[in-house]
Amino acid sequence: MSNSDNATQKFHYICQTYVEKDAGRAGQATLKIDKQFEYSNANDAQNRAEREAMRDDCAGADAYMLCEDLGTGEVEAPSFLVRLGNVPEFDEF
């Protein structure tokens, strides 16, 4: 990646946690986003996901990277660093 590419792109490193939500009469629990944390690097996002996934009330955690085109505002699909526990399928993300 050249320096000109760096000026037009921004990388976001996210830790996102999930909790199980009771589906009521449907009978099957679903996942709900609980918390989101943004970090300046991949390592910090991954470490937070690992810590959060160990909590009793956490169903699962993702750490992922997003690349944003600053010129257009478009964001690429997430690139997962780690997926821990019960997390949604990528199609549901």
The counted number of beta strands is 4
Mean of all residue-level pLDDT scores: 89
For the record, give the distance between the C-alpha atoms at the N and C termini, rounded to a whole number. Answer: 28 Å
- How is the quaternary structure best described? single chain
- Into which percent range does the helicity of residues fall? 10-25%
Report the uncertain regions. Answer: none
Radius of gyration: 15 Å
Largest sheet: 4 strands, antiparallel
Q: How does the helix and strand content classify structurally?
A: alpha+beta
| Largest sheet strand order | 2-1-3-4
Strand content: 35-45%
Number of alpha- plus pi-helical segments? 2
- The gross shape turns out to be globular
What count of structural domains?
1
Kindly describe this structure:
- The structure is a single chain.
- This protein is of the alpha+beta class and about 90 residues long.
- The chain has one domain (about 5-85).
- The protein is about 20% helix and about 45% strand.
- The protein has two helices and four strands.
- The chain has a four-stranded antiparallel sheet with strand order 2-1-3-4.
- The longest helix has 12 residues, at about 40-55.
- It starts with a helix and ends in an 8-residue tail after the last strand.
